[in-house]
Amino acid sequence: MADAIFAEPRLADIYDLLDPDRPDLDAYVALADELDAHSIVDVGCGTGTLACLLAARGKQVTAVDPAAASVDVARRKPNADRVRWLVGDAMALPPLHTDLVTMTGNPYGAAAGGPARLRGS
Question: Where residue 66 sits, what CATH number does that domain have?
Fold first, then answer.
């Protein structure tokens, strides 16, 4: 279930303006490069900043978020056409092989059912 603030289209549209500088994502990009990860799943992708950044670097990215309004914003970003976007939680992911799974910010704590839900228990 999406946090109500991220599901509201008007708020999703301005979310990136509230946090435009994202140096926190540098560590995720560096990790993907260090691991030579080619396929990456971004769980809780929000407005897709990391997913699009990774796609711009030639990574194959699948991004999932329960807030459709946030994913709609993500789909309008540069390099968004190189990302596979899904609306839902981690359980919405189809079976796939991936080199790296990322989860930036706070989606882990916001996940319905917490860590047990993400593990499928």
Answer: 3.40.50.150
User: So what's the pLDDT on residue 9?
Assistant: 84
The two tokens of residue 1 are 């279930």
Cα–Cα distance, 103 to 114 (Å, whole number): 13
How many independent structural domains does the chain possess? 1
Coil, helix or strand at residue 85: strand
Assigned domain for 53 exists: yes
CA distance 26 to 11: 25
- Predicted TM-score (pTM) of the model is 0.83
Closest CA to 50 of 72, 3, 83: 83
pLDDT score at 98: 95
